[in-house]
């Protein structure tokens, strides 16, 4: 049966990187994958068109699709919008929430060809392969009450609520334990249980789940230490499971271990396997429109789409091999270029991946 893919390019470098990723998807179609692809605006682009970051018809298309590929949203043009509930980022958060995409997988994998591109010493990062499992539809991002208000004496204040129900913790915990079972069987749960009650509950639930996965070694770490350990000795980690905000921050840090934020893909999945796939980085307004953006995180997100939502693991492997082969050819976008490599544009990188894919 034909599977439906919705592509949401978004803002800034979003259209440039999704264009290249879409070409890779089209190459998969030529290789026999039965898909139809549709595109729609989201984020700032949709605000400019209709006044809201996620149009109701786009949400409906998203619900009806088997998988979504998203570029990135946001940018300075919309940063001063007074109503945060209507900014571009809200479109992305609404998609995650409405489709119940609670399980966010962010694999930080260092391609051996990029050891020199990392800002850390080769011996610290070579062979790095971490999977961050981030809870994506709860925690402080969505907790109520939230707001900005002014007291009678004129003092302004703002507040958010960091809240998790036990079932939200349990279901992301299961995703993480199962992921660890398929990998090196080590799971580190990251929390702030020395200060925050909600994460004491988080830790309790992870401990309660552990006996169901006797082959997985569970450990716990405070988030500040985890940030430090990620740059000190990242290879101690296999799978990390954490809440929404800590996962956001730690995954950007982990990205740099792999050479560039432009290398980190992601999958956001719900219980039925439907998913949204996006690079972990943002819309990079500082480099938008200049052909400087690295499209590999988005292309690798297509590989995750094939593996996790479209049941086409062989094509996923083929895309990942194509990326490896392009790096073997010494082609690099600016963010991962260094002496002795050849710097290419976003589009040239896309060309190279498509042709390596077709030659596999
Ligand atoms: N998923 C998303 O849509 C998403 C994620 C993060 C940030 N954002 C939004 O993006 C905007 C910019 O945020 P930011 O500057 O904090 O983070 P960013 O990730 O957009 O950029 C941070 C730095 O990394 C560089 N960078 C990012 N992606 C790159 C790529 N593919 N190739 C080369 N370099 C790359 C940028 O040039 C910049 O110097 C904000 O509006 C933010 O809300 C969106
Ligand atoms: C743009 C923003 C809402 C988003 C997040 O905080 O989740 C981004 O930083 C990410 O990592 O996907
Ligand atoms: Mg982020």
Any overview of this molecule?
The chain is of the alpha/beta class and 360 residues long. It is 41% helix and 19% strand. The chain has helices at residues 14-30, 44-50, 56-64, 76-79, 88-98, 122-125, 166-182, 197-209, 223-232, 244-257, 296-308, 313-328, 346-359, and strands spanning 3-10, 35-39, 67-72, 103-109, 129-135, 147-150, 156-159, 186-191, 217-222, 239-242, 267-269, 275-277, 331-332, 342-343. A hairpin with a 5-residue loop joins β11 and β12 (275-277). α9 packs parallel to α10 (244-257). The longest helix has 17 residues, at 14-30. The protein is globular and about 60 Å long. The model has no long low-confidence stretch (mean pLDDT 97). Magnesium ion is lined by residues 248, 252. The site of nicotinamide-adenine-dinucleotide has 22 residues, from α5. Keywords: Amino-acid biosynthesis, Branched-chain amino acid biosynthesis, Cytoplasm, Leucine biosynthesis, Magnesium, Manganese, Metal-binding, NAD, Oxidoreductase. Substrate binds at residues 96, 106, 134, 224. It catalyses: (2R,3S)-3-isopropylmalate + NAD(+) = 4-methyl-2-oxopentanoate + CO2 + NADH. The record marks 141, 192 as: Important for catalysis.
């Amino acid at each position: 049966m034909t599977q439906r893919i919705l592509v949401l390019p978004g803002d800034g470098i979003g259209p440039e990187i999704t264009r290249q990723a879409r070409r890779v998807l089209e190459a998969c179609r030529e290789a026999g994958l039965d898909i139809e692809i549709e595109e729609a605006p989201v984020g700032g682009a949709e605000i400019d068109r209709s006044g809201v970051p996620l149009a109701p018809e786009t949400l409906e298309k998203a619900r009806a699709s088997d998988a979504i590929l998203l570029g990135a949203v946001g940018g300075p043009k919309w940063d001063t919008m007074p109503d945060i509930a209507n900014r571009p980022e809200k479109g992305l958060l609404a998609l995650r929430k409405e489709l119940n995409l609670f399980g966010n997988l962010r694999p930080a994998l260092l391609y051996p060809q990029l050891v020199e591109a990392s800002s850390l010493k080769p011996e610290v990062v070579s062979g790095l392969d971490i999977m961050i499992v981030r809870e994506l539809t709860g925690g402080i991002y969505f907790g109520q009450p939230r707001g900005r208000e002014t007291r009678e004496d004129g003092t302004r204040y703002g507040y958010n609520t960091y809240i998790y129900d036990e079932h939200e913790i349990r279901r992301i915990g299961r995703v993480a334990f199962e992921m660890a079972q398929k990998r090196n069987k080590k799971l580190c749960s990251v929390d702030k249980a020395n200060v925050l009650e909600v994460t004491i509950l988080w830790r309790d639930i992870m401990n309660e789940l552990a006996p169901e996965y006797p082959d997985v070694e569970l450990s716990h770490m405070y988030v500040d230490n985890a940030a430090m350990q990620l740059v000190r000795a990242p290879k101690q980690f296999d799978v990390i499971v954490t809440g929404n905000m800590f996962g956001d921050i730690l995954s950007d840090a982990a990205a740099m271990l792999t050479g560039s934020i432009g290398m980190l893909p992601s999958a956001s999945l719900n219980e039925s396997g439907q998913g949204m796939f996006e690079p972990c980085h943002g819309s990079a307004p500082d480099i938008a429109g200049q052909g400087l953006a690295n499209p590999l995180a988005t292309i690798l997100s297509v590989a995750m789409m094939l593996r996790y939502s479209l049941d086409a693991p062989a094509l996923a492997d083929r895309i990942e091999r194509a990326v490896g082969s392009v790096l073997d050819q010494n082609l690099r976008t600016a963010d991962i270029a260094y002496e002795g490599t050849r710097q290419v544009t976003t589009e040239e990188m896309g060309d190279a991946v498509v042709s390596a894919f077709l030659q596999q």
